[in-house]
Specification:
A hairpin with a 6-residue loop joins strand 1 and strand 2 (54-57). The protein is globular, with a radius of gyration of 18 Å. Strands 1-2 form a two-stranded antiparallel ribbon. A two-stranded antiparallel sheet has the order 3-6. The protein has a two-stranded antiparallel ribbon with strand order 4-5. The protein is 67% helix and 9% strand. It has 169 residues and is mostly helical.
């Protein structure tokens, strides 16, 4: 890998990390954050903060909420990475950029559905991190940290993919 490729990777990783935080915490609605893990076996009751109306949501609503969140999350990544790369004089290959965004979208959806027995909970249990996944005390939320590290790992892979065939402007 050349220094230019390494610099491109580092820039794309930084842009992707910033976009991820924006997409996850600023762009995601409260509704999506609360309902995206809903299932028919573990429904979520959402109370609208303005109207105080309570609604119950199952699997279909959970999937829709997670899909909506992942679409806004990925769009945020595309905009931030695209504008940032342009400002830095990096020309991304469209196919590599699309593959990177697709990987980010798919892995984000897989983790964020958070249904009981979902991918993160299952991985945590199989790797001896089940108790940490359940931890929500002492100022620590284990599921949140495992979720974040999952996303960071896949963002790194996406940045590597996006670096492929990138050139200077």
């Amino acid at each position: 890998m050349s220094y230019r490729s390494a610099a491109t990777f580092a820039a794309l990783l930084g842009l992707g990390r910033a976009a991820s935080a924006l997409g996850d915490f600023w762009m995601q609605s409260d509704f999506c954050a609360r309902v995206k893990g809903a299932s028919d076996k573990a429904p979520v009751i959402f109370e609208n903060p303005e109207t105080k109306k309570r609604t119950t949501h199952g699997t279909a609503d959970g999937r829709k909420a997670c899909l909506h969140h992942c679409l806004t999350y990925t769009a945020t990544q595309a905009i931030v990475a695209g504008l940032g790369a342009r400002a830095l004089g990096i020309r991304l290959h469209p196919g590599a950029a699309a593959a990177a965004l697709s990987l980010s979208f798919a892995t984000h959806y897989a983790a964020d559905r958070r249904v009981p027995g979902g991918i993160l909970e299952t991985l945590a249990k199989k790797t001896g991190k089940g108790a940490f996944h359940q931890l929500s005390d002492h100022g620590i939320n284990g599921a949140f940290h495992l979720d974040a590290s999952w996303h960071h790992g896949w963002e790194t892979a996406a940045a590597l993919i996006a670096t492929v065939k990138a050139t200077s402007r």
